Amino acid sequence: MIGVFDSGLGGLSVLAALVEALPRSDFRYYADTAHVPYGNKSEGEIQRRVLAIGNELAGKGCHLLVVACNTATAAAIEALRAAHPGIPVVGVEPGIKPAAQETRSGRIAVLATESTARSARLHKLIRDHAADVDVHVEPCPGWATHVEMLQLDDPALASDARTRLEPLLERGVDRIVLGCTHYSFLAPVLREAIQGRAELVDVADAVARQARRLAARMPAGHGRIHLHASARPERLRAALPHLHLNHLATRVA
Ligand code: DGL
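That is the input. Now the predicted structure with D-glutamic acid docked in place:
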C-alpha cells in the first residue's frame, strides 16, 4: 500500500501519474481538507499536519509515502523522514532542474504557494540547479483554493493568471514551473494566458518514476484506491470528473 497525501485535491494530479506508473499497486490518498490551504500557514503548522498524516498512513500499513504537495515537502519532508526512518518518503519539488536545462532564453519562472516561495528548500534548489539561469519566483495566493472549489473556469482566476504571467513572458521567460500540485489542474487556464510563448513544467511523471523505483521490491496489490479526507471526504470522489480523472473512479474502493 502506498500512502499519498496533500492539503486537498492537488495531489490527485500526482496520484494519477502514480496509478499510470504502478497500475497494480494499492493507494491510500489522504486530503487534509480541514486544513487546506497549506500555502498561507507557518512552517510549524504544516509540519504538525504532515507528521500527523504520516503517522496515520504508516499506522494503516503504508510502506511508501508520497508527499504529493510542494508546500508540505518544502516545510516538512525532513521531519517526516526522521519520524519514519523505515519508510521511504518521496516528495514533490518544483521542476527547477528540468526547466533550467531546457530553457533557451535563460529565463524561467516558478509559480508556487506563498509558503513554498519563501522556503529555504526552494532557494537551495535554485542555487543548486539554476545558478546560471534567471529564476523568477511568483507566489500565487488563492489559486489552490480555486481548485479546491472546482472553480477552474473562473474569469477572475484567468485574469489573475494573465496579470501575473504577462510581465514574465514579456521578459522572455520560456519555461514556467508548476510549483504546486494544485496548479496542474489550472494548466488549460495558464496555457490560454501563455499563448504558446512558454512551456509549463510539471514533475508528476518524474515523481511517479521515482516511486516506481522505490516500490520495485514491494508486493503488488489489486489496483485499488482508498480515498480519505480530514473534512468532507465525499467531495474527493465527486471531484474526479471535474478534474478529468474519471478513469480513477473505477478503482476507488
Ligand atoms: N498542493 C500544494 C502544493 O503542492 C499546496 C496547496 C495549498 O494547500 O496551499 O504546494
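The mean pLDDT is 97.
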